[in-house]
User: What shape does this take?
Amino acid sequence: MSQSEPVVRKIRVLLVDDNASYRERMARLLQTQADLEVIGQAAEGKEALARARALQPDVILMDFRMTGLDGYTAARAIVQEFPQVKVFMLTAFPGALDREKVARSGLEGLLVKDQPAAEIIEAIRSSVGKLES
Assistant: This one.
C-alpha cells in the first residue's frame, strides 16, 4: 500500500439481543469478515445505551423484542444521541415491525434474523461505506 492511500479501518459493530446464543452465533459470523469487528454485546436496551456511549460503534444490530427496555425504544434513543451510528432493528418476526416506521425513526433499517448472512453483512457494509481513519 502506498502512503497516499487512506487507511481503511474496520467497521465496529455492537450486538444487542437477549438471546445469548444468537449473539454468539452472529459474533462468530461477523468476526469471519476482515472488515468487521464486534466490539461488544448487550442483552437489553439499557445495557445497549451504556455500551453505545462507552464503545462508540459504527453499527448496532439491535433485537426489537427484549426484556427490560425494548430494542426499538433503545435504538431511537441511541440515534437521537449519536446520529452517526447506524442502527438496524433485528427481528425474528418480520410482520411485527413496519419498515416505514423504522425508517422514519432514523434507524438504518430492518433485518430478519434468519435472512441470509451475506445480506446482513452487505447491509452493514452499505450503511457505513468505507471508513477512513
Remarks:
- The first strand starts at residue 11 and ends at 16.
- The mean pLDDT is 88.
- Strands lie at 11-16, 36-42, 59-63, 86-91, 109-112.
